[in-house]
Amino acid sequence: MTIPVAILGATGYTGAELIRLLDNHPDFEVAHLGAHSQAGKLTADVLPGCAGATGSMTLAAADAVLPDEVELVFTALPHGAAANSVKQALDGGKKVVDLSADFRHQSATTYKAAYGINHPYADLFPEAVYGLTEFARHKVAGARLVANPGCYPTSTLLPLVPLLKAGLLEAGNIIVDSKSGTSGAGRSAKTDLLYCEINESVKAYGLPRHRHVWEMEEWAEAFGGESTQIRFVPHILPMTRGMLTTLHLSGDSVNSWHDILNTAFASEPFVQVLPEGKLPSTAAVKGSNRCDIGIAVLGEQQAVIVSCIDNLIKGAAGQAVQNANIMFGLDETSGLSAHAIWP
Predict the structure, then answer these.
(1) Per residue in 323-340, pLDDT tens?
(2) Active site includes 50?
(3) Which residues, 6+ apart, have CB-to-CB distance to 279 below 8 Å?
(4) CA 197 → CA 186, 238, 239, 243, 343, distances in Å?
(5) Active site residue: 50, 151, 291, 308, which one?
(6) Stretch 262-277: mean pLDDT, rounded?
(7) Global pTM?
(8) For domain 3-127, which CATH number applies: 3.90.1280.10, 3.40.50.150, 3.10.20.90, 3.40.50.720?
């Protein structure tokens, strides 16, 4: 028996990845697909990469009543739009993995600071589990609502938290420089993402304070036990997918940091700490649910850590499936691969 699943926001890049991952999943079955402007069309007509039975499904409206048999809902809708769908799904007795930002914060105050809007269901914040799987596994297992982390916070927090736990970082002096492929900006039409605008160009954006900084600082403290100040600058590159995050860090016992990271992730199926001095690349993780971490020691009190993920997989759909597996007591790695598409 398979577990029927709904995907809301199915026609975006993250929704398409969810379809692809779940279509080969041994325990989940796509039973319902919802979309906004594309409702009423066949999935394959909107997503050329879809085929077979899933490609032949008709897209329902994103706010349509969910079928009774659906047990799990992935909401891949924009922030602000997802909250109503999450509430509807929970009221219908479904479990939810929300890939928007609507439940990633611990309070309505922080959410409003980051996104500039009031939250309609702030009473759900205490229940939502922030699903950075490697540090929240036990809470995810008992959750009804999991808030899937953002891609930038995922690539930042995975290498950062173990060092914060060890008490070796200057937590008030963390510089994070990230570069992402254009798929991270979503599928909707934007002038600044036209080929002629983005090709042969790199640009920073989201300054002076990108909305993901609130998420990074909040959960760095929650998981790492220490208040942090993060100076974060994201950049967009003319490539489809991939994320490379460089953390410029200062602290004590820098020569022990590689061993600390190795120990922290030794048994993790989707985090790989590279040999000392070796740095990761986006191509090496493309299409995988893996995060590669490399460290270069610069001196007695300084180091650079580089973290790479596929922003659509470990940064979104793959981590969501990883969390869903845990929520339903399945093998955490089901339907996911640690191997990249190569070349």
Answers:
(1) 999 999 999 999 999 999
(2) no
(3) 294, 296, 306
(4) 16, 9, 13, 20, 27
(5) 151
(6) 96
(7) 0.96
(8) 3.40.50.720
